[in-house]
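Ops channel
N.P.: pipeline sanity check, posting one input/output pair.
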């Protein structure tokens, strides 16, 4: 069986086995899945900005043409060289497209499949794991302690480093989601262009807005039951191209943080100390405490269940992900408004 355990994936990615031509990157952590798929697809070719060397495909768009993926993988460039085919899976079954690659693996081409959370019996996962030249790479949740290493790795791509003070500030601001962290680090690198090291002043100048961003405003509106603020904020995020699954994941993490804090309060903890332990950015401290006052432990457990179900459905039905996310957000906000 060609697969790697979650803790083995980073080491594998540092030196991918050249015997593999087909890579399935999957799991519940959408940001980590995207980051690793990106690394595999871009790292194989000489110029990842060349659209012929790195071909990006949407799974739902090519699912009706079983030969499309094999044709792309078998195409030889005018000047030779290696190619990467990066496919983002959606709600449609990609197994028929991948089967020809298992039967006749491509040469000088790497096929990277980016997918959501797949059960052990999922046909696509089973197919890749059983292929001689295929490997499946699971991606599970990042944790807060992973943030400094993630920041260092992304900044190094831009020839930058971060001092201790700026790392601590970033740890407080950023959520443990690689896709969101990458976006914020790209903004920070653009701001610090020409410098060699990121300072706390740079972080405050660029990330203050990120910490009080539309997403944070949406999360606060969601758990305070402020429907008037929630609807336009969520609409803006969708218009800006934010992934619905990532937004639901952010809401789920926030709900779990609130639940942990609520448990501490119920056990007699002090509100300020509980809030500090939750590592809430100082500008959101007041809103966080109002949310804690509004929600009970059972209420948060119900919200967590709603968001988990929405996250799972959004991964299975990509075309409906925005509608599913909106419905879950409205459900949670209505519960908050009644409490």
């Amino acid at each position: 069986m060609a697969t790697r355990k979650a803790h083995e994936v980073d080491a594998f990615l540092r030196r991918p086995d050249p015997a593999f031509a087909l890579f399935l990157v999957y799991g519940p952590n959408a940001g980590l899945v995207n980051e690793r798929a990106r690394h595999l697809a871009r790292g194989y070719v000489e110029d990842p900005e060349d659209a012929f060397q790195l071909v990006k495909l949407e799974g739902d768009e090519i699912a009706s043409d079983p030969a499309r993926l094999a044709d792309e993988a078998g195409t030889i460039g005018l000047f030779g060289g290696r190619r990467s085919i990066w496919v983002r899976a959606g709600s449609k079954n990609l197994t028929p497209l991948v089967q020809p690659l298992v039967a006749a693996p491509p040469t000088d081409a790497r096929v990277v499949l980016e997918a959501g959370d797949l059960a052990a019996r999922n046909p696509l996962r089973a197919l890749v794991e059983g292929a001689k030249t295929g490997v499946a790479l699971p991606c599970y949740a990042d944790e807060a302690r992973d943030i400094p290493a993630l920041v260092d790795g992304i900044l190094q791509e831009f020839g930058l480093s971060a001092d201790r003070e700026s790392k601590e500030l970033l740890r407080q601001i950023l959520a443990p989601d690689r896709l969101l962290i990458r976006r914020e680090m790209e903004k920070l690198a653009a701001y610090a262009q020409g410098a060699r090291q990121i300072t706390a002043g740079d972080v405050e100048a660029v990330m203050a807005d990120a910490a009080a961003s539309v997403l944070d405003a949406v999360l606060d509106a969601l758990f305070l039951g402020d429907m008037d603020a929630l609807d336009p904020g969520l609409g803006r995020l969708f218009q800006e191209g934010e992934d619905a699954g990532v937004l639901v994941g952010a809401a789920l993490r926030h709900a779990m943080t609130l639940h942990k804090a609520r448990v501490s309060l119920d056990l007699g903890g002090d509100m300020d100390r509980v809030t500090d332990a939750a590592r809430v950015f100082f500008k959101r401290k007041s809103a966080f405490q109002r949310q804690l006052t509004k929600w009970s432990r059972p209420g948060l457990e119900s919200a967590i269940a709603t968001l988990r179900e929405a996250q799972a459905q959004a991964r299975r039905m990509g075309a409906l992900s925005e509608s599913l996310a909106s419905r879950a957000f409205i459900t949670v906000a209505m519960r908050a408004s009644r409490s």
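N.P.: looks fine end to end. The chain has a mean pLDDT of 87.
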